[in-house]
Amino acid sequence: MENNREQMNAEESIDLVEYFSTLRPHMWKVVLFALGVGAVTLLLMFWTPNNYLSSATITPVTEDAKPIPAIGALASFGVSLGGPTKVEDLESLFRSNDLTVRVFARHNLWPIVMRDIFDPATGKMKTSWLGELLGREKGPKPPGDWDAIRAVKNAFKVTVNKKAGTIAIAFESPSAEGSAAIVKHYLDEAKSRLQEEALDRAVRNKKFIEEQIGRTVDALARERLYSLYGQEVEREMLAKNREQFGFRVIDSPRVPDRKSGPFRARSAVLAAIAGFVAAAGYFLARGNGKKTGDQTNAVS
Fold first, then answer.
1. What's the predicted TM-score (pTM) here?
2. CA atoms of 274 and 119, how far apart (whole Å)
3. How far apart are CA 35 and CA 21, in angstroms?
C-alpha cells in the first residue's frame, strides 16, 4: 500500500516537472498574454459607468383579528372582506409587472435607466445597429410597457426575510440620486395601489351588505350584518390614512455615497488569471502534441 502511494507521488512529481519544462520556454509569452488581457479588461471597464444601489426596508401593517359570525356567510357569496397585508402579498405586489408599468407610466424614469439610448428631446429610444441588423428594431420609437419590464429585470431586487417579517427592495442604476428616487416611487405607487384596492373593496362590500340588510328579516342576522358593515367602514377610514396603510417603512431609501460596481481592479486581476491559465493550457497542449508526433515518427 505504501509502495503504491510512493509510486503515485513519484509519477505526479514527474508530471509536474514535465509540465514545467514544457512551459518554461514559453513562460514569458504566457505572462505577457495574461498582462495584456488584464490591461485590456481594465481599459474596457473604464468605459463602463459606475452603478449605485439604493434600498429600503418595509414591514406589513398588521391589525388585530376581529372574528364576526357573518363573515363565513358573506364569503360564500364571493365577497372579499380584505384584511391585513401579509409579507407574501407585498412580495407579489413588488414583483408584479403591473407595478413596474405603473411606476414608469407615472414618472419619467427613462433618462435614468436608459440614458444611453433614450433621447429626452424626442422622447424616443434610439435604435442600435445590432437591432436594425437583426430586424428587431425599426427606427426610433417611444418606450413601452415591455421596455420598462426589461429595464428593471436585473436592476430591481426584492428580498424577503420571513423570519423578521420584512421586505427589502433595492434598485441599481448609474445615477445615485436616480436609484433612491426610483425606490421611493416604487414605495409610493405600491401604497397607492393597495389604498385604491382597499377603498374599492370597502365600497363594494358596503353596498352588498346594505342590500343584504334590506332583505334580511331576522334580527340576529341584521345585527351581525350591521357589525360587519361597521368593520368595512373602519377599513375604509384606515385606507384613507395613507401613512399607516398597507406597510410601514423601516428604512427609507437614501442616496448612496459609494458605488456598488463595477469593481475594475478585481475584474482585471481575474481576467489576467484566466488569460494565464488559457495561455498555459495552450502551450502545454501544443507541447504534448509535438511530443506525441515525435514519438510516432520515431516508432515508424
1. 0.73
2. 39
3. 22
As a whole number of Å, the end-to-end CA separation of the chain is 39
Check: CB of residue 245 under 8 Å from CB of residue 61.
Answer: yes
The number of angstroms, rounded, from the C-alpha of 60 to the middle of its chain's C-alpha atoms is 20
pLDDT tens by residue, 182-230 = 999 999 999 999 999 888 888 888 889 888 888 888 888 888 888 888 8
Q: Report the C-alpha gap between 215 and 208 in whole angstroms.
A: 11
Among residues 294, 289, 296, 279, which one has the least CA distance to residue 34? 279
210, 79 contact by CB (below 8 A): no
φ and ψ at residue 162, rounded to 5 degrees: -70, -30
Nearest CA among 38, 42, 45 for reference residue 275? 38
Give the whole-angstrom CA distance, residue 79 versus residue 69: 14
* Structure confidence by residue, pLDDT tens digits, 239-295: 777 666 789 999 999 999 999 888 778 888 999 999 888 988 888 777 665 655 555
Torsion over CA: 252, 253, 257, 260 (sign): positive
